[in-house]
């Protein structure tokens, strides 16, 4: 069974259930992707049986844009998402004209901008039912300067910007704990990361076996002991 995944923590969590799947005569092949662009394309094209790298808002946006019907199977984990800085220690000390790095993909850019809106750092007003973009910023009292980066470069850019948005796994790349974020959203089930399959894959018994393994007590223990709160179980 071929499953596409992001390197950390998704591929690592998949590897943790390899032995369990082998007991059911399932040969798990984990295909690691370094971008968010390919895993859904491969799944829609039948090159994968499932993928594991995304939360529902991202999946729904892909299905709308591509005209596909990729289907969530089970929620596995949640990665806290936060605003980090190596230059300032609090939201109050973010300076005027601070450079802030946002994820370039539409869903995560929206999530970042709306977090800044909730924190009172700007006034962002997207049209009803639309994802927020920087063009929807009505008021920006600190004159924050936004730069959109591909998600895979965010962690390496931490020292290059006044503030950077990072997922928990990206923070781990820099040995940065989520407790040090200027602000962090934790445990929001809307942003749980899902095992996803194409529509017919819901009837695949191997996918069902994988889903059960990923939401079992062994996986819960693996996540809790391996990631120490940077990644948390969603089940």
Give a quick summary of the entry.
With 235 residues, the chain is α/β, with parallel strands linked by helices.
What order do the helices and strands come in, and which of them pair?
Elements: E1 2-5, H1 7-16, H2 18-22, E2 29-32, H3 38-44, E3 50-55, H4 56-66, E4 71-78, E5 81-84, E6 99-103, H5 106-118, E7 123-124, E8 137-139, E9 145-149, E10 163-167, H6 168-173, E11 183-185, E12 192-197, H7 205-214, H8 217-227, E13 232-233
Parallel strand pairs: 1-2, 1-3, 6-9, 6-10
Antiparallel strand pairs: 3-12, 4-12, 4-13, 5-10, 5-11, 7-8
- Any idea what the CATH superfamily of the largest domain is called? Periplasmic binding protein-like II
Task: Assign the CATH class of the largest domain.
Answer: Alpha Beta
Question: What strand line-up does the widest sheet have?
Answer: 2-1-3-12-4-13
Quickly give the structural class: alpha/beta
Tally of DSSP β-strands:
13
Largest sheet: 6 strands, mixed
- Which percent range fits the helix content? 25-40%
- Taken as a percent bin, the fraction of beta residues is 15-25%
Membrane topology: Lipid-anchor
Subcellular location: Membrane
Main location: membrane
Pfam family, one: Lipoprotein_9
Walkthrough of the structure:
Pfam families: Lipoprotein_9. One of its GO terms (cellular component) is membrane. It comes from Mycolicibacterium neoaurum VKM Ac-1815D. It is a lipid-anchor. There is one protein chain. This protein is of the alpha/beta class. Helices cover 31% and strands 24% of the residues. The protein has two domains: 123 residues, 3-Layer(aba) Sandwich (D-Maltodextrin-Binding Protein, domain 2), CATH 3.40.190.10; 86 residues, Periplasmic binding protein-like II (D-Maltodextrin-Binding Protein, domain 2). It has eight helices and 13 strands. A six-stranded mixed beta sheet has the order 2-1-3-12-4-13, with helices on both faces. It has a five-stranded mixed beta sheet with strand order 9-6-10-5-11. It has a two-stranded antiparallel sheet with strand order 7-8. 37% of the residues are buried.
């Amino acid at each position: 069974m071929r499953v596409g995944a992001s390197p950390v923590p998704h591929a690592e969590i998949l590897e943790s259930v390899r032995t369990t799947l082998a007991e059911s005569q399932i040969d798990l092949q984990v295909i690691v992707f370094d971008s968010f662009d390919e895993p859904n394309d491969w799944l829609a094209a039948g090159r994968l049986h499932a993928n594991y790298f995304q939360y529902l808002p991202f999946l729904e946006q892909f299905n709308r844009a591509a005209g596909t019907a990729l289907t969530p199977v089970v929620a596995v984990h949640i990665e806290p998402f936060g605003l980090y800085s190596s230059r300032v220690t609090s939201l109050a000390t973010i300076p005027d004209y601070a450079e802030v790095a946002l994820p370039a993909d539409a869903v995560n850019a929206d999530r970042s901008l709306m977090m800044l809106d909730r924190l009172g750092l700007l006034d962002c007003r997207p049209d009803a039912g639309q994802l927020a973009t920087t063009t929807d910023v009505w008021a920006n009292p600190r004159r924050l300067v936004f730069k959109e980066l591909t998600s895979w470069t965010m962690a390496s850019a931490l020292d290059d910007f006044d503030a950077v948005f990072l997922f928990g796994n990206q923070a781990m790349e820099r040995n940065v704990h989520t407790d040090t974020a200027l602000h962090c959203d934790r445990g929001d089930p809307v942003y749980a990361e899902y095992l996803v399959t194409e529509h017919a894959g819901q009837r695949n018994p191997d996918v069902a076996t994988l889903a059960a393994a990923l939401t079992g007590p062994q996986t819960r223990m693996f996540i809790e002991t391996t990631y120490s709160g940077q990644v948390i179980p969603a089940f």
